[in-house]
Amino acid sequence: MNAPDKAPAAIDLAAEFRDAGVGEVLDALERDLVGLAPVKRRVREIAALLLVDRVRQRLGLATEPPSLHMSFTGNPGTGKTTVALRMAEILQRLGYCRRGHVVAVTRDDLVGQYIGHTAPKTKEVLKRAMGGVLFIDEAYYLYRPENEKDYGQEAIEILLQVMENQRDDLVVILAGYAERMERFFESNPGMKSRIAHHVDFPDYDDGELAEIAERMLAGWNYRFDEAARAAFAEYVVLRRGRPHFANARSIRNALDRMRLRQALRLFDAGATVDADALTTLTEADVRASRHFHPADDSRAAAH
Questions:
Q1: Which of 131, 128, 184 is nearest to 160 (CA)?
Q2: Helix (H) or strand (E) holding 98
Q3: pLDDT score at 297
């Protein structure tokens, strides 16, 4: 008589999670990025899905390999590239990615300028990305229906083929503004059908932007004095209301300009400086921004 089949051994998911080192990546994501709670939750959900899928495979449970291609939508400076890097780490640690690297590209890296140029450009990028993640920023620029001679459609067709046939060795993340990405997917249903995970990145609020600024300054060994901190809170409100605001990217650019003003202020003073003076941004360094002086912008525009 044949012995009855043994029941599958139980597997400790917490131990699997710990041994794979995924917790370290999620902790780093929490540490590196301010706010973005829904994004962090979505990343955790995807990590949990992949972990459970790996355990199911080990227990011999029939399963369809999860689709891993993703869409990251949101305004500039909301952490999409950083999350893509962390996602690649998770994929590698769980065995869904051989190398865990990220190749970040735009339309110009994929689309050629003459007949016969696009295919080799696109295939070369895909070759570099194999075993990892291909991150295509502002992916909607691949499709330009107003120009019937545009070669972007050729790049899209090559991408679609690779996303389907080599999905076990390449994860594609398409990124860009939400409305434009939606129009892109409507015009390219084949692309939309291959995207399993849609992650929306919200804008940072004023408090989060202030915290981002403090973290950046600390990383550069700078700080605001109290008056500068209050002035910067006003600056954030003003800057958010002006054109081309790019969340953390705009904050970084603003801090760079404030450091320039501090350096010039110290240089022009010609006095002896100590570490405190060299590391402190003052109210004057903040309020010299043109965003506090819209009348100056108007005069400049008139000329």
A1: 184
A2: none
A3: 57
The confidence score (pLDDT) of residue 42 equals: 94
Position with higher pLDDT, 64 vs 142: 142
State whether residue 194 is helix, strand or coil. Answer: helix
The angle that helices 248-269 and 206-219 make with each other, rounded to 10 degrees, is: 50
pLDDT over threshold 90, residue 267: yes
Q: Hey, how many other C-beta atoms are within 10 angstroms of the C-beta on 244?
A: 8
CA distance 229 to 237: 13
The rounded distance, in Å, linking the Cα atoms of 291 and 237 is 10
Residues 6+ apart with CB under 8 A from 214: 223, 224
How many Cα atoms occupy the beta-carbon half-sphere of 174 within 13 Å?
Answer: 27
- How, if at all, do strands 133-137 and 171-176 pair? parallel
pLDDT band at 45 (very low <50, low <70, confident <90, very high): very high
Secondary structure (3-state) at 103: strand
How far, in Å, CA of 148 to CA of 65, rounded? 37
Alpha helices in 21-79 (DSSP H): 22-32, 37-58
What's the predicted TM-score (pTM) here? Answer: 0.86
